[in-house]
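Exercise: predict the structure of this protein bound to GEK.
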Amino acid sequence: MNHDKDNIYASAQDQVADFEFDQKVANVFPDMIKRSVPGYSHIIANIGVLAEQYAQPNSQVYDLGCSLGAATIAMRQRIHAPGVKIIAVDNSQAMLDRSRQFLDLEDSPTVVETLCADITQLRLEQCSFAVLNFTLQFIEPNLRSATIAQIFDGMLPGGALILSEKLRFDNNEQDRLLTEHHHDFKRANGYSDLEISQKRQAIERVLLPETSQEHISRLHQAGFRTISQWFQSFNFASFIAIK
Ligand SMILES: Nc1ncnc2c1ncn2[C@@H]1O[C@H](C[S@+](CC[C@H]([NH3+])C(=O)[O-])CC(=O)[O-])[C@@H](O)[C@H]1O
Ligand SMILES: O=C(O)C(=O)Cc1ccccc1
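Solution:
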């Protein structure tokens, strides 16, 4: 399996188009996400650890906005409850096609089904564990509450949702500093100032971050009982919400 280096924004573009999860991105995605999201590998490994804890026998586990299936692979390696099916969902066919190449590399008693669907339209069933690992931030803000509510409705008692997101901060100084530190992180991982600035333009209309408080309130409103922020690195965080 070749992991191409992300140089999508390396040369100057006249017009930077809005970011899309197309074939070009699918080809470089493992490199892009590791060099762009602080703590990504830590989050993926611990999604595996948490899935092992929360996956109930004969239930379903959902990876919502699975991209190439990194979280699915981590979960499949650790879940040993019997009769668990992982449903890995994405609305980008390019991402899903490539995810199958990764998923087919290993065999496991936990069945994995891939599904090309829009998660805002999805009804979950018998769900003991669901993952939104940097996916909600790409959903239109006015559809986010209904999407979280649908996940809650499809969940079994004691089920858990992992929500990882890029954050925005109400305090302008804090927002500016953490954004700068994130850009320093990208620079330290080999991205040039041009790459950082063009990628920033590409995502500014499609990745719409919210504050930690907005996420926590929405999860409470949907009915989740216990909500904890279990991870943060610069302006990237992950929450766990229990039904
Ligand atoms: N409405 C939607 N329905 C389904 N999928 C969607 C939708 N909108 C966006 N996506 C999909 O959500 C994924 C977001 S990437 C997730 C990383 C992964 N979770 C990982 O753990 O590696 C995050 C990032 O690139 O920052 C993409 O694959 C989109 O096609
Ligand atoms: O690259 C960035 O600046 C990000 O905020 C993270 C990211 C990672 C992968 C696709 C889109 C955004």
